[in-house]
Amino acid sequence: MLLPTHLAAGLIIGKLTGDYTVAFIGSTAVDLDHFFAFYRSNVLSKFKKMIAATTSQNFIVSDQRNYFHNIFFFLAISAIAIIINFEIGLVFSLAYLSHLILDSLDDQVYFPFYPNKKINSRGPIKYFSGQEIAFALVLFFIFLIV
Fold it and tell me: Most exposed: 26, 39, 59, 68, by fewest CB within 10 Å?
């Protein structure tokens, strides 16, 4: 899913928990692992390729969803965050989980147990499509009515 969809989920969680900052961080920071894949593929230094890699329905960079999109990493980071501060850790974990769920809903290959690539998923929503934009708008609407 694209950033606006993750931001919409962060807004909903922020509104429900009263902590928008932590919800935004939890719902978006997960995508920092994309930069590892962009670096390995030499895409970071080429602006046009970077745009294509983030907006194309057919990724030109493999393994964009790697380390931070791993379920075990999510569980470890969530446990650490909750131990440090229960309330903040819980909000962060909910937002992080929303990110993983949203990414599993789009049609790009997702490896929840990365680096194990035997188990993967593809969801019903086309990446960077009218479907995803409509889905994001629905999430923003839910934010407004909650």
Answer: 39
| Pair of tokens at residue 50 | 């970077």
Domain count, the chain: 1
| Residue with token string 């470890």 | 76
Nearest to 8 by CA among 70, 85, 120, 101: 101
- From residue 41, how far is each of 64, 98, 146 by CA, in Å? 10, 28, 41
pLDDT per position as a tens digit, 37-87: 778 877 777 778 777 777 765 655 666 777 888 899 999 999 999 999 999
Tell me the C-alpha distance between 117 and 72, whole Å: 14
Largest interatomic CA distance in the chain? 43
Buried/exposed code over 133-142 (b: 16+ C-beta within 10 A; e: otherwise):
eebbeebbee
Contacts of 36 (CB under 8 A, 6+ apart): 66, 67
The whole domain housing 28 covers 3-145
